Request: fold
Amino acid sequence: MNLNQVTLPVTNMPEAVDFYLKLGFTLIVDTPHYARFACPEGESTFSLSLTDHCGAQHAVIYFEHEQLDEWVEHLQRKGVVFEQLPKTERYLWREAVLHDPSGNKIKLYWAGENRLNPPWRVNLAGQPGGLM
Reply:
């Protein structure tokens, strides 16, 4: 199984599309009510769906970049505002935090080997549904 995409609600499609283009994503579907982007690396995509009201946002979308600090500096020069500049968290991921124009929380991060293999990783071998 592979994750296809994540869809975020937005209240202003043109403003949201401009924001994600500024972050460096490639627009692959563009309609008044729906937009879809390809990530700069790999085969992952994500989309935006127009809504009248986003409400309280509890989901967080993560975008990974090996040169996180340089990427954040580049985005700041483009006028992107961050809630938190890159810092190394207790779970060993380096993260910066921002919000898109509709209030969706975004974390730009780099975790390296710790993304899939943190020191506290559970050994799934032999568990039902676990890795063999």
